[in-house]
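Deliverable D5.2: sample structural annotation.
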Amino acid sequence: MFTDWGIDPLPFVLTVWIVGLYLVGVAVLRRRGDAWPIGRTLAFVVAGMGSFFFATASGIGRYDTTLISVHMVQHMILSMLVPLSLALGAPVTLALRTLPPRPRRWLLAVLHSRVAKVLSFPPLTFLLYVISPWALYFSGWYAASLASPFVHEMMHVHLVTVGALFFWPLMGIDPLPGRVGYPFRVLLTVMTLPFHAFLGVTIMGQTTLLGEEHYLALREGPMASWLPPALEDQHLAGGILWGAGDLIGLVFFVVLFVQWVRSSMKEAVREDRRLDLMEARAARADREG
């Protein structure tokens, strides 16, 4: 996992460009004398894009087509951990604060477009998020990703994109359409857990192999001496999906709880200021009267 690294072109180029643009934005803010929380930078660059690169270039990326259990670890990182971390990095807010006037107007136009509103509509993004893995594993898509490097890389991008569409309006800081109240955010997050668990249990109970032709062919070659039985590895993959989904879901609850508390505290401060202002105006009116 930590010693066998390789560079796949698409994830490497995406990582370099996205991290580079984000750090340029942070540098522009600092040259202007504006503050940018270090936690957001660490969330985006280290936890977000760092996890993306680790999942696609480390031993996880090297063995994701050899062991379905390793692929499942990669799946959970790309579909849950990476989108959450990127959302907490607030890249849209950073772009709005650093872009020149014309590109900023373009970005605002995109954010207020009908397409953005549809793609951030919570019920739609929820359906995409829970149906996507079922479509991946119980159609020809997964077998195609094992046979084609291009389809394989597109699958990585798809996992991150669908996760971002779902979690960004729920957990993110950016001013995106589709924002809903915290109770509904918690409800949507809770509703994802049974789907992950049910899919994991379904894969664990399968007696037929996913990507059967590919995995059986590997066991006829030189790797046959150390590869575990394919069906056992698939059962392990289902357990990883089930357990990791619940574990990362707990992280989501913690993040939502902290954001909810902070939002409530800010609202309380705003309300106190409003009441203080009303009292001051009433006292001034009494003195003048």
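Annotation notes: The chain has 13 helices and no strands. The chain has a mean pLDDT of 84.
The annotation will be released with the project's public dataset once the embargo ends.
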